[in-house]
Amino acid sequence: MQDKLIIIYKGLQQRRSFKKFFGEDPKRNDFLESLASKRGIDDLLREAIIELAEFTREDHDHSEDEYRDLFDYLVNREPVESICMRYGIRGPDEIKLDDVAEILSRFE
Question: SS3 string of the chain?
C-alpha cells in the first residue's frame, strides 16, 4: 500500500511539474487529475506514507546528510520507475483507482 501511495504522490508531483513547464498533459489520468484538485492531498499522502512506515515498523536506516526527514527518505530511497515495475504499472502517470482499490479490498 505504501508503494502505491508513493507512486500516487510522485505522479501528482510530476503532473504539476509538467503543467508548470509545458501546460496541459495530453496523456490525461482522470484519477490523478481528480486527486490533484483536492485541497490538502499532499499532506494526506505524506501522513499516510509515514504512518504506514511506522505501522509496519520497517527499518528506517537513513542518513540525515542524505535525506531531510523520514518522508524524504521513504519517497526517494528507490526510483519510482522501479516501484511501478514491481506492480506492473508503466509509470506514475499510469496509476488508476483500481490499483489502490485492489489493495484496500484485502482489508474488507
Answer: CHHHHHHHHHHHHHHHHHHHHHCCCCCCCHHHHHHHCCCCHHHHHHHHHHHHHHHHCCCCCCCCCCCCCHHHHHHHCCCHHHHHHHCCCCCHHHCCHHHHHHHHHCCC
CB 10 within 8 A of CB 92: yes
The Cα–Cα gap between 95 and 11 comes to 8
| Residue 39 φ/ψ region, left for φ over 0, alpha for ψ in the -120 to 50 degree band, beta for the rest | beta
Global pTM reads 0.77
Distance separating alpha carbons of residues 65 and 96, to the nearest angstrom? 35
Contact 104, 4 (CB under 8 A): no
Q: Is the pLDDT of residue 79 over 70?
A: yes
Q: From CA 69, how far away is CA 75, in angstroms rounded?
A: 10
- Which are the contacts of 53, defined by CB distance < 8 A and separation ≥ 6? 2, 60, 70, 74
